[in-house]
Amino acid sequence: MDGYMTIGEVAKVKQISIKALRYYEKIGILKPAYCDPDTGYRYYKNEQMLAIDMIKFLQILDIPLKNWNQYVEPTGEFDLKGLLRDGQIRAYEKIGELQSCLKRLQLAERGIQDTEKYRDCDGFYRREIPERNILRREIKEGLSSVEFHKKLSELFELAQKHQLSANYPSGMMLDVEDGTFTYFVYVEVYENCEELPEYKCIPAGTYDCLRCPPKSIMRAAELYPEYFAKHAKFTVVESDCITSPVYFQEYPVELQLTNLH
Q: Which residue, 21, 55, 78, sits at the end of a domain?
């Protein structure tokens, strides 16, 4: 048929599957121009190739195909300008998401590199740690693993809500002030977000460190009795010690202490 292509020819030319074309027909966004009543063969007009390009455009930008009809006028005309406008908005959103993802990858890589330098240390050691931005929430002493990971997930969701690049390392914190202990769960973020009540900046400095099993922060006073006796107000950080390659089993944490005041 002159001016028409079979469904197989369209699939080959536009590099999509026949199954996808049948799906577009099923949801009503691209119906064949002609369907042979005897054979059931589907044919598409050349002019419909642009519509396929627009559908692929929606998919690249993660715009739901169900939104297709909002660009179709009652007269059947397609609002290409509207799609391009919305496409640009979504493209900028995706750029932001990718930039955030890149920051998270860089943050995670930095954490692994820093951790690997001290993986063979035995006993106490000192190391320089750069300034860190974190989000944290208070937790009760003796929190279960389920509740801990629930709190951690809430912080990741909070970071996502405010378009912050949260990633590992994460862990627990302890604020000590005149004998009062307050525990927190935290995640590190790339950005400064001091407008959030959960935000805290941990300054750069020389930290006294010790590798321990998870949740050793709960008995930090036993591990560092001299430090606790000497300082009245300070913070202890328990950070994940994730290295590469990763074995999906219990890994150590690093307790970090410095006088922050």
A: 78
